[in-house]
Automatic annotation (TrEMBL):
The keyword Transit peptide does not apply. Residues 1-20 form the signal peptide. InterPro entries: 6-blade_b-propeller_TolB-like, FlgD/Vpr_Ig-like. It comes from uncultured Cytophagales bacterium. SUPFAM superfamilies: NHL repeat. Residues 20-73 form the FlgD/Vpr Ig-like domain. This is FlgD/Vpr Ig-like domain-containing protein. Keywords: Signal. It comes from the Bacteria. The keyword Isomerase does not apply.
Amino acid sequence: MNIKALLLFLLTALSVSAHTISYTLTKPGPVSLAIYNPGGVLVRTVHEAKPQAAGRHTYEWDGLDDDGQPVPNALACTWKLLQLPAPLRADYLLTLLVTLPQGGEWWETGVGNHSAVRAVAADASGIYLGSGISENVGNAMKMNPDGTKRLWSAWQPHPFRGRWAFGISKGNLYHLQQDGYVGYHPVNAPNGLYQSVGVGKNQTGSRWDAQWPGSKRAASDDWRPVKGQSMDMAAHNGVMVISYRDQNAVQFRGPDDGAVLATVEVDAPLGVAVDNNGDALVISGNAVLRVTRDGKTAPFLSGLDAPWRLDVDRRNGDVYLAETEPSHRVRRFSAAGKLVWETGREGGREYGVYKPRHFKDITDITATGDGFLVAEEAAPRRVARFDQAGKFVKEWHTGTQWVPSGAPDPDDPTTVWARADSYDLLKLKLDFAARTYRIERIYRLSGLAGKRIGPRFKGHDEGIGGGFGDWVVRKRNGNTYLARRELMQVIRVDEKNGALKPVVVGEFGKTNSSLWTDGDGDGEPQPGEFRKFAWGETGIFGNATVGAPDDLDYYRYNRYANKVYRVPVQKFNAAGAPVYAPLPDLVTAVPTFTGFDLKKVYLAKSTGAIAKTDDRFFVAMNTQPPKADWNVSDYAQLHIFDAEGNYVARVGRHVDRPKGPYQFAPRPGPGEVYCFKNLVGAVYDVAVATDFDGGFSGKLSAITYAWDKNGLFAGGLFDKPNTKTAPLHQYYHSGDNGSGTILPDKATGEALYYAGRENELAVYRVSGWKGWVRLSGKVK
């Protein structure tokens, strides 16, 4: 060994000699411990929520950092310790956007998500609901007649394929499925997770093929709008009728074997019903025809306005008829065809104050004997009961579009802005004590700012940092603003007129980009209100989220420069619009990241999500291998910086999720991370992140992570949920999204967490933030 090598060996040996950390715990509990260099940067994570007994503890440090490298000037290092008196505990409070009676499984909540309830039926034993295409949720159920108890549920019939119509005849419930099959089983079939009505694994009942010969069967991913439904079905007292719009035909079928008993030519038939005489009532154009099995047709109703579906009151033969756009009304006719009454606002339910007596986008209608039920696609997706006089009685919210998001008001956590579908926002008022909510207002969202604010799937970011159309609430200068997480879009709430007024929209292309700022308060772009610049989508607006909770500044991670950039608000103009710094000249770089292969970030579908406190800046970072599944990463860490952008800590240790269905993966160990989905916020100087694994198998609670501002691990929100107040399956959120928002409840010292699920939102109260023990000292 030469002299130089010997000196290097001796220096390394001296630098990694053992150093001592000693501390005394007055109580037992989980301990997180880390070592920091003289500059205050975390260099070695020692313990992560490690259970320790009360008493004296000593740790011998070898002088190496987390990467196994010697730490210079080790004797000048310090240590910090965090001990929680008890794990963080989530208490389920209530569900938003679904008010149907719950079942015993995690998926027995709302009905449908990609489509709303498309089929509704009722008999003396209960009410039946069925949705169109759905994902990871049930899409058929039965509840008792007053809607207070769920009697059975059914899972999606094959991936996505849903139900278009129900019929009830001689004790059987018949389903017209999207794939063209008619399935049936007894109305009181036992509860079961069956994929479809038919034969095979996880299936129940029987089925037969109702698809018109030679026509194209709907694919499993055929996301048809309501008006795209080309068939309808009705059944009563052994008579079944199916309409084929595209084939200009109505068929009488044998309910149990599908035998074609008669085919009658009708021009573009839509909704069908079977009257008390066994004849078919068929919507064609703006009329209803009476069609008999021997092929005779006769006019029954005429002069209608966009009729869509109808049903017959079995007591007296009266007909309830639902009209779709542009009418959005319900009419009742006598058995002789005389108008009895009509209800609903012509043109549909207005935006503004919610009026449940009005309709919007009716998908189905059924008579109940004491009135009728309607199902609706527009926000709020619901099934509503009306009496025989057409008066509103009650409604059930049936669930919203896939993976909703909710934005609580930071000044009033009982006010939540919830995205109910692709096009609208609901303003909800929560009652935590009663565990209920009500809808205050409905706001139009999609199509604003000259259609620059589009549906949630337009221009969204599929990666980390929020859901599909997540918004957050910000308050400035007496105004309420909604800022979109994954796109640079800001909306001012016009409380006086009950409208949303866009004030900022950024559009970033590969070469030419623009930033629109409203100058006159009309919420519509004018030619002189744009700032254009040559700055491509591959610039700093590749992927990120809104910044601090007390401002409207935007933060963006630029994976090419490996920095986060701040785009600050310089002022507010007379229209109440935030005026951002000129782009890209005045944006400010914040931190530069270390610890991962920068080249892999170019390949990542998921990169950075951001949360901020007064003196800390948190960024959750993933990288993904090429062609990886959407929930797989090969690197995941939380990066922590101070307010000036200096590194404080890099924490979290990526581990691969075990092979197999991801929703059944075991919980990772303390400080271990599968794959970050989102940073839902920071409370009490603690950043909270979610995993792609939402725990929606019902066997495990959702995986979340929490680190304090010093990089000390504090566990997860759902590690020890309170199962005394709610079953375990209530402690999950969407496995595909993990979006959510967390707010401090300053009155109680607790936190409120609003989590997105497959077709609903859930609200939790999280306790355990008080009484934290913090110790610190010098390394010896």
